[in-house]
Amino acid sequence: MRRTPRIGGAPLAGALVCAGLALSLTACGGDDGGAKGGTSEASLQGRGPITFVTGKDRSGYLQKQVDGWNAEHPKEQVRIIELPDEPNDQRQQMIQNATTKSDAYSVLNLDVVWTAEFAANRWLTEIPKSQVDLSKMLPATITTGQYRDRLYAVPSTSDAGMLYYREDLLKKAGISAPPKTYAEMWDACAKVEKLPEAKGIDCFFTEVNKTESLTISAVEAIGSAGGSIIGADGKPTLNTPQAEQGVEFLVKAKKEHMPKEAVTLDTEGGRRYFQSGKLVFQRQWPYQYALADQKDGSSKVAGKFAVAPLPGPNGPGVANLGGHNLAISAFAKNKASSLDFIRYLTGEQSQRANLLATSQAPTVAALYDDPEMVKKFPYLPVLKQAIANAKPRPVAVKYGDVTAAIQGEMYDAVTGKKPVDQALTDLQAKLQPLTAQ
Amino acid sequence: MNTAATETPSAAGTPAAGAARRRGRDVQGTRRLAALLLSPTLLVLALVIGYPVLAGFRESLYARGEGLDAQGFVVEGDRFVGLDNYTAIFQGDRADAFWNAFSNTTFFTLTTVVLETLIGVAMALIMHQAFKGRAIVRASILVPWAIPTAISGLLWRWIFQADGAANALLREQILWTADGFPAKAAVVIAEVWKTSPFIGLLVLAGLQMIPRDVYEAARVDGAGPVQQFFRITLPLVKPALLVAVLFRMLDVLRMFDLPAVLIGVNQKSVETLTMIAWFEASNLRYGSAAAYATILFLYIALIAYLFVKLLGADIIGEARRQTKRERRKAA
C-alpha cells in the first residue's frame, strides 16, 4: 500500500520528519558555542581528514582530482559524498546536515543562488578575503560567493546563457552577423523563414515552463531591458518601465516566435528541439555546445551553428550568471584542511584540467583566452563576454519563496492569463514581505 | 496512519479472545495477561505513531528563523506562536493556495477512486474467469501496481510530453505537462492506471471466497448474469471492496510523488496538500509545514470516519463480533 517513501509524501512520513527535527532541535538547542558564523580567522583551524559534498559527479573526473590531492596529503584525506542529481535534493540534504549541526560535511559545493540563504543562517564559515587568491577570477563570479560584502564561498565553476544560432541558415538568408538586438533577431527570422530549407522551423526558444528556468529567463529579459527583479538595496523593483519592457519581450517571444509546446519544454527538451534542426535561435547554457556538435548523427545541426552573446532591446543583452561555489560548513572540523582543499580545487591548474575533462566553465579568467582551450572549446570567448556582462539571480535569504513567486507570476504573464502590468504589480506585492528585513 | 491505528483493537481482540476461550472463568486474569502480552506492541506503536503525531503537532505551534539581524544573519531560536501557523493558512494569498490544493486533493480523490473502483472490479471479474492463459493475464494486470510511483511518473511524463505517444495517438497538440487542466487529467489517468490493479486484486480475493453453489442455486432459480452480479457477487464482495476503496482513498489523499514527477512541484493545477507541506518544509518553515500536515491528517481521519460510518466498511468487524461473543459468555 505504501508508495515510494519521500519526505512529506505521507502524513506519517511528514510527522516523522517533524519529530526528527523537533528532537534534533531540542537536542541541539543548548549548545550554541561554535556556530557564530565564523567571523574570525581563528575559526579556520584544524587539520585532518575532510569530506567534499557535491551533486552527482557525471563525468567521474572529480574523483581523479581528489585522488591527486589525497596522494599529496596523506594525513588530510578527502572523501567525496555524492548527493542526488536534483539541485533541490542537494540543498535539502545540506540543510538537514546544517540544522542538526553535524560535522559530517566539511566542504560544500553550493549552487550560486544558495549563498545568501546558507550564509544568513550561519551555516557557512566566513572565508577572509586575504586567505584566497581571487585576483585571477572573473569579478562577476566572486560576487556570487559573497553575502553582505563578506566572502563565504570561493567560485569554482561558472555558467551563463548564450545565443545559439544557425550560422548556415543565416548565411543563406544573406545575414553576416548574429543579431545584437531583438528587432534584428526577428528580422533575421523573417528572412530565414522564406528559405525553402527552413520549412516548419521556429524562430526562437528560451525556457518558459514553470520551473527555476523561468526565473532565469525573467532575470535575463528584465536585465537586458536595464531593469532588475530585486535591486541593489534588496527591495523588489518590478514597478519600473524596464521590468515591464523585459517581460513584454518574453510574452511576445512566446506568442509569436516560439514553438507552441514551449511551456512544456525543459532545458533538455529545448536541446532536443535545437538539435533536431527546428530552431533558428535559442538561449541555452554552454553545455549544449559539445552535444549539439556531435558528429555521430545524434545532432542534425553539427557544424551548422555558432554562439553569440544574448541580444537585448537596444544592443547586447544580459545573461544569467550560474555556476557553483565551494564553501566550508560552519560545523565542520578541520577547517584549515578544508580551506587548503578549496584553494587546490579552485586553482588555475585544477580548473584547467577540469575544463578539459568536463567542459564546465572555469572561473579563472586566463583560461578563456588560452589558445589551447579556445581551440577545443570555440565558444569560450563568447562565454567570457557573457559572464562579464551577466547578472546573478535575485539575492535573497528566502530564495525558495522568491523564485516560486517569480515563476508563478511570470507563467501567468507569459501564458496570457494576466496582463503584464498586473503580473508585475502582483509580483511586487508578493516579493515585498519576502525581502523585508 | 489509520490502518495502523486500527490494528490496535484487532490485535487486542484476537489473542485475548483466544486465551479467554481456553480458560473461560478467569476473565480478570486473562485481561491482565493480555495487557502484559500486548504492552510491547503498544509501546512500539506509541513510539512510532503516537510520538511523531504529538511532536508534529507541537512543531506546528512554533515558528523559527524569522527576520534578520543587523549583520544580515537570521535570528535564531524557536518562538511559540500558538495557533498562528493555522490561522495563517486561511488568510490572504495562503488561503488561495490552500483552497486550491484542498480542491485538487479532493478532486483527485473523487475521480481516481471512482474510476479505479469501476476498472478494478472489471479486472477482478476477468481475472476470476477460468480461461486459458489466466495466470498471464493476472500477472500482467498487476504490473502497473508493481512499478514504483516515481518511475511510472517518469514513464507517463514521456507519454504525455508534447511530441509523446498520447498526442500521437490523439492526433492533437495537447500540452499535458504544462500547468492547466490537461495536467489534472494526466495525473488522473496515470494514477488510475497505476492503482486499479490494487482494487482488482482485493476484489479478486473477495470473489474467490464466494462458494460456487450460491451461483448454481441462483441459476436454478432463473437469475440472469446481471441479477447474479447485483444480488450475489456485489453484496458478497462488498466487505473486501469497501476495504480496498478505503485504502485507496487514504492513499490518494496524501498523493505527492506522482504529480510531482509527472507535472512538477509548484504547479497550481496539480498541487496537493502534501505538496504545500513539502514546499513549506523545504523553505525552512517547519512550523507551518507541520500545521499543513496536521490539517491533512485531520481531513484524512474525517474522511475515513465518515466512510466507515456511512458505508459500514467493517475492517475490524471480525474482532468486534468475537469480543461481543466473549462478553455474552462471560455474563
Descriptive report:
- The complex is a heterodimer of chains A (437) and B (331).
- Chain A is an alpha/beta fold and 437 residues long.
- In chain A, a hairpin with a 2-residue loop joins strand 4 and strand 5.
- Chain A is globular and about 65 Å long.
- The N terminus of chain A is likely disordered.
- Chain B is an all-alpha fold and 331 residues long.
- The longest helix of chain B is centred in the first third of the chain and has 37 residues.
- The two termini of chain B are 35 Å apart.
- Chains A and B meet through helix 1, helix 3 and helix 16 of A and helix 2, helix 12 and helix 13 of B.
Defining key terms:
heterodimer; A: 437 residues; alpha/beta; five-stranded mixed beta sheet; four-stranded mixed beta sheet; 17 helices; disordered N terminus; B: 331 residues; mainly alpha; two-stranded antiparallel ribbon; 76% helix; 2% strand; flat
Brief characterization of the structure:
The complex is a heterodimer of chains A (437) and B (331). By secondary structure, chain A is α/β, with parallel strands linked by helices.
Helix and strand topology:
The complex is a heterodimer of chains A (437) and B (331).
Chain A: H1 11-29, E1 50-54, H2 61-72, E2 78-82, H3 87-99, E3 107-111, H4 115-120, H5 139-144, E4 146-147, E5 150-151, E6 153-160, E7 162-166, H6 167-172, H7 182-192, E8 202-205, H8 212-224, H9 241-257, H10 267-275, E9 279-284, H11 287-292, E10 305-308, E11 321-328, H12 335-346, H13 348-358, H14 371-376, H15 380-388, H16 399-414, H17 420-435
Parallel strand pairs in A: 1-2, 1-3, 8-9
Antiparallel strand pairs in A: 3-11, 4-5, 6-11, 7-9, 7-10
Chain B: H1 2-23, H2 27-59, E1 62-64, E2 78-80, H3 84-89, H4 92-128, H5 134-146, H6 149-160, H7 165-170, H8 181-209, H9 212-220, H10 225-253, H11 257-262, H12 273-282, H13 286-311, H14 317-330
Antiparallel strand pairs in B: 1-2
